[in-house]
Design brief:
- The protein has 314 residues and is mainly alpha-helical.
- It has a single domain, classed as Ferritin (Up-down Bundle).
- It has eleven helices and no strands.
- The protein starts with a helix and ends with a helix.
Amino acid sequence: MRGFDDFRVRCTIDMILSSTLDSPGLKCNPGCAMTLTIAATPPDLTITPRPLGVAKHANTARWWHGGDPIATTWFNALSATFPQGETFFIEAVRRYRDVVDPALKEQISAFVQQEAMHTREHVAFNKLIKQAGYDTSGMDEYTRTRLDIARKRHPIGQLAMTVALEHFTAIMAHALLVDRDPLPGAPDEVRKLWQWHAIEEIEHKSVAYDTYLAATKNLSALYRYYIRCKVMLLVSLLFWRANIRHMADFFRQDGINTAGTWWRTCKYLFGTPGMVRKIFRPYMSFYRPGFHPWHHDDRALIARIDQELRPIEG
């Protein structure tokens, strides 16, 4: 049944893209175009790749997040997908760098540098997870298989998937950074990794989206809206399915994959600290006509956290 569901999702994505991107009548038609007011990326935005090095022998406590297996598993499951996922993002965005304006091309270069460093640091962090006694080979294979399937999709489809997942990372990054006590009980080195990653995810949150707008400039606004919303719905299903699957894998290895553990997980995600609860409204904003990632300007937030992290670097 799971294989059939995956097949159905893949077919649905292909039908969406083939019925829109390959349609001879797809060019922008003034008579049917959707008039939208879209916020622009701030013209003075700077995307700055920041060096970071996760200590190879940092604290490798099995439940590094203050001894909490639920919180630890949530972040471990995310990190397990990051290296391969961010490599996919780089591929999807970089292939369009020669068809965008010089300013966006420069942002794409910075995006690639940031994502490459995120990949490197989460590879190092994932080694710490393994040193703590976890086997992530099944998660790695699952992620590889799903991304290999994604790479067979239409290039615009791959870019739309990246837009959707970049929205997820940006809103989760914001929720993490506004938390007064982020990752309580976590080693400073690990907390710094996640905050650093969050800063840069917010900083480049519009690059994939602006690239999507540039790559689909000959499509009507209505079709562009239709594609990104449909793909977001399907990507959301796949994102949560993968994350729940990986969390269950970690729980099984800890011998706590029980109804009680999942009840605690629901309270963690929907109650306190409530990551899912916090990101619900920002997530839904993606479906608004005229949406743009910089409708919410959180540069002041990332500047403050960036400054707070500097003493640690000293």
